[in-house]
Amino acid sequence: MSESLFDVAALHVGYPRLPDVIRGLDLSLPRGGFTAVVGPNGCGKSTLLLTLARLLRPASGQVSLHRRPLTSYPARDLARTLAFLPQQPLAPDGIRVRDLVMRGRQPYRRFLLPATAVDHAAVDAALAATGTKDLADIELSGLSGGQRQRVWIAMTLAQDTDVVLLDEPTSFLDIAHQVDVLEAGAALARSGRSVVAVLHDLGLAARYADHLVVMKSGRRMASGAPHDVVNEDLVHEVFGLRCRVVADPETGTPLVVPRRRAGTCEPDQTVPTSTDERTAHACT
């Protein structure tokens, strides 16, 4: 195991009306590379990420970042160490792309002083890295969902931190834009940063992540390299899904293929051509 990034001990986190989202969690996330946190809806993935970002205070337990208690970081120091992109970030009406990305430089700027050459260089680099340089003067509201997500990631890059937390960065995106976002996350990891992302698609998580954390009901069910973690028994236990796990033909990483559920159509060599024939072939 490489040097740890986060160490979580006996963590208990929740909300006023839902106090037991995470219960007694022990976890270590490796420094460097791409870690994906996966699990069924409501299992505590986003709650964990909010806690790692120090946006939720644990009821008990401790979180350490770089072997140092997370609570010991002054706010500005933490903002220069860790960047967090939430599920549904909000932006002011009418803001242009470059101005939004410049907000990532806030931890380094002095109040009311103009942006420095270093700030502008960081923004330019972030726009270039996410393929959004040509969008710099366009209002955020005029972009597609995939473009907006790349701009938000650019703002996160401009923050220039060693640690990047992404909460469901591929939600509401089509498959092409999901791949674009995950490629950007993998590129970040290759550049030497530590990326931790909450993801829903287990196959894509296994393809792009170096390390997986699988959660269920606020607990860690498994963690490690995708090849060591993803198997048919685990998928059934965690997701309630019978499946086959095969090698991804592109990457060799684990790929989950769901098995047919009872009552679904069986393969048929004949191809119905008329309306009546299609009706006869329909599942009942």
UniProtKB/TrEMBL annotation:
Species of the source: Kineosphaera limosa NBRC 100340
GO biological process, alphabetically ordered:
iron ion transport
Basic and acidic residues composition-biased segments: 275-284
Annotated region Disordered: where?
Answer: 263-284
Q: What is this protein called?
A: Putative iron-siderophore ABC transporter ATP-binding protein
* CDD domains documented for this protein: ABC_Iron-Siderophores_B12_Hemin
* Keyword terms, alphabetized: ATP-binding, Cell membrane, Ion transport, Iron, Iron transport, Membrane, Nucleotide-binding, Transport
Indicate where this protein is primarily found.
membrane
Single GO MF annotation: ATP hydrolysis activity
